[in-house]
C-alpha cells in the first residue's frame, strides 16, 4: 500500500537516493531540503511535493511543520535525515551550536510539532544516525553543545548519539499509541558529507583512497528505504538502532533509557515545549 513519506535532507546524498527508490516503489514522497535549486530539481524529477527549510533557523522548522500539516492529511513515515558535520563552532540565529541544532534540536522540534498527525497515522519516525555516536559521542546534560571541549567530530558524534536516544524515548512514550521509531547508520557514503567541516573526516571524504572504501548513496539509502517501506514488527523493532539491517551490536555505553528521558526533557525545555 502506498505511503506518504516525508524525507528531510532529500536534495542530495542518501536522502535523494532514498526518495528516488521510494518513488519508484509507488510511494508518495515529500522532498524537504535547504538548497532551493537542488531540492526543486529532485522534486521535479519525481513529480513530488517539496518544501524548503533551513534547519539552522527554527522558525523555518516551525513553518515546515505547519505547511506539512496543512498539505497532507496523513504522514505515514517521517525520515529525519537532514544533518551533517560542520566547521568551527558557530551559533545559529536561535543561539544554539549549529551541529547540535541541525542534527538534534531541529528534528526533535519537527517531530514534536507533527506528533498529533503522526499518531493519527500510526506513523514511523526514522532517524539517520551514525557510528560516530559510538566512536565520538559524549553527552553531558550540563554541556550539550560542548562549550568546554568543542571539536567538529565530537559535536557530530554527540548529536548522532542524541538521535539514538531520541528514538528510544519516542518508542517509550508513544509506541503504545501506535507510533514506531528507529535509527540507523548508513555506512560511510561517498557524498559531499564533511566537505564544509574542519574535522579530519573532511580529508577522508575528499581523498581518493577514502572514497574507494565508501558505498554509493543508493547503497547508503538501503536501510532508509527498508525501514520506510516495512511495517514495524515485520523485520525491524521499534526503538532500535540498526546497522546493516540488524540491531547494532556495539553501542555507546551512554545509550540508556535514563539518559534518553533526561535528554528529551532538556531538549523540550530548550525549545519551550512541554517536557511530559
Tell me what you see in this structure.
Pfam families: adh_short. InterPro entries: NAD(P)-bd_dom_sf (IPR036291), SDR_fam (IPR002347). Keywords: Oxidoreductase. This protein is α/β, with parallel strands linked by helices. It has one domain (4-271): Rossmann fold (3-Layer(aba) Sandwich). It is built from 12 helices and 8 strands. It has helices spanning 13-24, 36-46, 58-71, 98-113, 115-120, 132-135, 152-174, 200-206, 208-212, 217-220, 222-229, 257-271; strands at 4-7, 28-33, 49-52, 77-80, 124-128, 180-185, 240-243, 246-247. It is globular and about 45 Å long. The model is unreliable at 209-213 (pLDDT under 50).
List the topology elements.
Blueprint: E1 4-7, H1 13-24, E2 28-33, H2 36-46, E3 49-52, H3 58-71, E4 77-80, H4 98-113, H5 115-120, E5 124-128, H6 132-135, H7 152-174, E6 180-185, H8 200-206, H9 208-212, H10 217-220, H11 222-229, E7 240-243, E8 246-247, H12 257-271
Helix pairs in contact: 1-11, 3-4, 4-7, 7-12
InterPro entries: NAD(P)-bd_dom_sf, SDR_fam
GO molecular function, one term: oxidoreductase activity
Pfam family, one: adh_short
What is the CATH third-level topology name?
A: Rossmann fold
N-to-C SSE string, H for helix and E for strand? EHEHEHEHHEHHEHHHHEEH
Q: Name the CATH superfamily assignment.
A: NAD(P)-binding Rossmann-like Domain
Strand order of the largest sheet: 3-2-1-4-5-6-7-8
The biggest sheet, with number of strands, parallel, antiparallel or mixed sense and barrel status, is: 8 strands, mixed
Amino acid at each position: 500500500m502506498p505511503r506518504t513519506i516525508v524525507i528531510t535532507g532529500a536534495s542530495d546524498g542518501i536522502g535523494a537516493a532514498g526518495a528516488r527508490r521510494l518513488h519508484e516503489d509507488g510511494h508518495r514522497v515529500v522532498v524537504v531540503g535547504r538548497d532551493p535549486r537542488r531540492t526543486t530539481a529532485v522534486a521535479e524529477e519525481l513529480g513530488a511535493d517539496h518544501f524548503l527549510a533551513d534547519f539552522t533557523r527554527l522558525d523555518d522548522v516551525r513553518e515546515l511543520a505547519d505547511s506539512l500539516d496543512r498539505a497532507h492529511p496523513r504522514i505515514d513515515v517521517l525520515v529525519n535525515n537532514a544533518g551533517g558535520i560542520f566547521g568551527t563552532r558557530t551559533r545559529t540565529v536561535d543561539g544554539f551550536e549549529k551541529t547540535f541544532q541541525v542534527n538534534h534540536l531541529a528534528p526533535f522540534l519537527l517531530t514534536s510539532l507533527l506528533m498529533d498527525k503522526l499518531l493519527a497515522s500510526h506513523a514511523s519516525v526514522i532517524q539517520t544516525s551514525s557510528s560516530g555516536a559510538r566512536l565520538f559521542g559524549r553527552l553531558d546534560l550540563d554541556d550539550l553543545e560542548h562549550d568546554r571541549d568543542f571539536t567538529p567530530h565530537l559535536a557530530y558524534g554527540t548529536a548522532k548519539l542524541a538521535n539514538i536516544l531520541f528514538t528510544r524515548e519516542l518508542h517509550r512514550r508513544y509506541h503504545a499509541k501506535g507510533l514506531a521509531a528507529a535509527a540507523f547508520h548508513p555506512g560511510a557514503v561517498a557524498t559531499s558529507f564533511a566537505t564544509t567541516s574542519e574535522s579530519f573526516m573532511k580529508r577522508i571524504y575528499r581523498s581518493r583512497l577514502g572514497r574507494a572504501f565508501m558505498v554509493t548513496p543508493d547503497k547508503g539509502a538501503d536501510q532508509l528505504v527498508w525501514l520506510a517501506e516495512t511495517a514495524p514488527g515485520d523485520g525491524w523493532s521499534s526503538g532500535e538502532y540498526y546497522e546493516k539491517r540488524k540491531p547494532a551490536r556495539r553501542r555507546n555505553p551512554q545509550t540508556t533509557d535514563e539518559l534518553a528521558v533526561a535528554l528529551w526533557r532538556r531538549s523540550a525545555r530548550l525549545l519551550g515545549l512541554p517536557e511530559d
